[in-house]
Amino acid sequence: xxxxxxxxxxxxxxxxxxxxxxxxxxxxxxxxxxxxxxxxxxxxxxxxxxxxxxxxxxxxxxxxxxxxxxxxxxxxxxxxxxxxxxxxxxxxxxxxxxxxxxxxxxxxxxxxxxxxxxxxxxxxxxxxxxxxxxxxxxxxxxxxxxxxxxxxxxxxxxxxxxxxxxxxxxxxxxxxxxxxxxxxxxxxxxxxxxxxxxxxxxxxxxxxxxxxxxxxxxxxxxxxxxxxxxxxxxxxxxxxxxxxxxxxxxxxxxxxxxxxxxxxxxxxxxxxxxxxxxxxxxxxxxxxxxxxxxxxxxxxxxxxxxxxxxxxxxxxxxxxxxxxxxxxxxxxxxxxxxxxxxxxxxxxxxxxxxxxxxxxxxxxxxxxxxxxxxxxxxxxxxxxxxxxxxxxxxxxxxxxxxxxxxxxxxxxxxxxxxxxxxxxxxxxxxxxxxxxxxxxxxxxxxxxxxxxxxxxxxxxxxxxxxxxxxxxxxxxxxxxxxxxxxxxxxxxxxxxxxxxxxxxxxxxxxxxxxxxxxxxxxxxxxxxxxxxxxxxxxxxxxxxxxxxxxxxxxxxxxxxxxxxxxxxxxxxxxxxxxxxxxxxxxxxxxxxxxxxxxxxxxxxxxxxx
Length: 609
What we know:
With 609 residues, the protein is of the alpha+beta class.
């Protein structure tokens, strides 16, 4: 449901293609129970009514409340026969908000409630009463209807298994929205979850275990949905935007269609017995095992796409290695965990070794117990049974860009194991070890042949993405052709091997401003970002600049990497929303000890030793 304020508008530019509605009807099964949240328009910085006279962004609606969307909450123009879509155009500080005691209803009852609400809202809006009194009635009903319908509930909100966010992104760039939940008794206790909406259709299902464990189910909730970086207002339409109870989801998920997130997979962790092969190694011995040819095909294909494969198996390590070497696939797995402890702990160890987000992991196991244990301990991980795992190469989870470097990603991590072993055996200081690695950084401008790999990089990187942005391939091509900016591509290599393309930066030449910067996490802790920024400082100084500016938007994931600006001596100039403008005085800047040789592919002299 939506707030009863305003007439039901139709947004002619919010067009939902017929095939999207057809896909919804074919693939999205109605839940057993669903909520009927009342969504309304709010401001993230609201201090009403004082802000109505003090805030320069205040734009009055008919009821004098602040308009934070470009229009009312409108209806999308859908070609298909599916349920109506709610569409919004975010402005700065805009927030979709639902409040009340969420309740669960049977789908038919929920649809009846929606229809009743539309009829009553229309009646209130058409009442021949003075405008102010009529608006008070409408706003009263918006606040009261959630509580009124609560009495007709089929179940309390504690029975919900997921929050479903079905959205259509009308823009050309991905949009990150923050879903959060709080209660009136704990106004400072937020439980945020980031949802990334790709251009076009998106369906995200967030397990409620992530945010229900510490909340009371009999107390009023505030449910918020807002744009993460709101300098460019997103144009989004929402279909299902409610809590649901799905009995099949109360057990571990068993198919790729029911995954918890649209985040693309970066690592698949495989069970072995009755998953990769038929039979149980410890009971039947290696000669009785029959490899599953289809699973071997999936593992090989994922490896070609740059999706890492690992193992979580309760077996003897030496026996497993012998079998996998005999099958010729031992080298396809990175950081395999073979032992007798909980498999969730095995997945955690793999995640720490790879240093990638836990929400990009997929766990495949034939045993319901093992799936339930991993899902309870690591709700961010997508959990699949062995049948769904055998079809992963056809899943949207694994639909990732394919580049020449993708096929080498496993090799990059295996070379990193050699680096870690060498670092562990080094008796000197860490700086001495880095110097012994003979790291070389090569910088070149973005050209058309590099677009695919740079596009892949900007879609994948999180921990060392200094803006949180995701650029489409078309947008990267536009930036590369922009005469006011230089798009820089960064490669690295050392004595252990070639990292390939590991970084991308955008320099506004006239303003001497580093507008964006991102790196692969493979070069974390190697001071590559320090040397790159120092190289830019020398570059703009040669062009006559006295300062180097940088823009940085801190997120939960990139905060550790953002410390590089403090380490190099940048000062905060100003903050607008969560975007920080930083300045480095070049007169006194000195990197200190240079541990990396920096080269420019265009033929400029090296900065490093």
